[in-house]
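User: My instructor asked us to take a sequence, write out its structure as tokens, and then describe one feature of it. I'm not sure where to start. Here is the sequence I was given:
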Amino acid sequence: MSGTHPFRVLCARPLWIANGAVTGVLALLFAVFYVGANIDPVGHMQALPVGLVDADEGSGVGGERVDLGAQIVASVTDPTISDRGGIDWQVMDEREAQEALGRGDLYGALVVPADFTTSALALTDAEATGTPARPTLTVLTNRSAGGVGSGLALDAATRVAQRASLEVGEVLAARSGTGWAEQPAAARVLLADPVAVEVEDGHPLDPRSGLGMTAFYYALTLVVCGMLAANVISGQVDHALGHTHNDIGPLRLHRPLIRATRVQTLAIGVTLMVGLSLPMGTLAVVGAVGIMGMDAPHLPLLWLYSVCAIAVSGVGALALLAVFGTPGMLVVTLVFIGTGVPTAGAVTPLEALPGFYRLLAEFEPLRQITDGLRAILYYDARADAGLARGWTMMAVGLAAAVLFGFGVTGWYDRKGLHRVPAAAEPEEAAAPV
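Assistant: Let's start with the prediction itself. The structure tokens for your sequence are:
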């Protein structure tokens, strides 16, 4: 035993350099991933899907057919007239729009009602009886697809509706002819901007759905549970095999060394992870639904999905820990949390992320799990609303984790890179650990 005072280690330059480099890189990466993904959603927005519904039946006036709804659609969709601003306007009928909103394919929609032209022309009809109603455009939002995305769609649809109102005002002024100047000032102001804009929820959610955020936070819960469980299991397996001490407060426990290959050690951890994912998934559902009251219309499916998500996340984390050793937990944190949260599509929609982040989102575990949970919690467990992709990507992720973990640890074993504590067998003290 060395007689050096413990605090003398603070004078060791490698201790400061190694830890400074690791913690500094972590700070840099988290700042880049989190801030970079959300710093300019509007500037990075590409092809944000928003529905455009023209149900206007038009009207015949003086032998002339007038269809203001068709004019609005032409103005919005013609690239030589309209600045799309990163919006992918998708023309569809009302039924198609409701179905698309109901599976999260649209962040919102602009609807031109059936009586739009009739209501607009009635404002200048001198023979009309009673007080004519203002023509109305309806903007549908979809918070279930993400609050920021729904807000961006709302802004875009509202701008289009306001521009359409001015265009309709020009049509009404032209049709009024010389009678326009004879209108009272208040009437001319109304006719110049005649269209009222109504905002409605295109896909209403239960109040206990966190304004469309419960899917993300619950997915984050499952991923973090899998990560932390993998860290605990990895340490406890090492203790059970006698590789490490186990400190509990002032007590230090140590077990006799049990020889095990790296593959065997990983297999023990994976078995524990799969088995423990059952009570963990159950308790996650109990906590979220039973205690906190989260809306969950498909409870059995939610339980099964929760168990599988924890198991897949945990097995993936165990594979990384087995391959990278002590730095493995940093790698796990970066893979599952550092790059996972900003690419999950929960805060900023994928269509408003920079290209690099959209690429990451294609295989990031948190995004796949979140999409599946959205389908279960908000979209009646529809396969085409993200559930099928969630199951598929979890299966792909599990297969990749197993192949990577057992493939690399098997290679370590074949190369003789065994995990034998130096204190247990001095003659192998030089062997890599």
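For the description part of your assignment, you could build on this observation: Residues 200 and 358 are 29 Å apart (CA to CA). Try explaining in your own words what that tells you about the chain.
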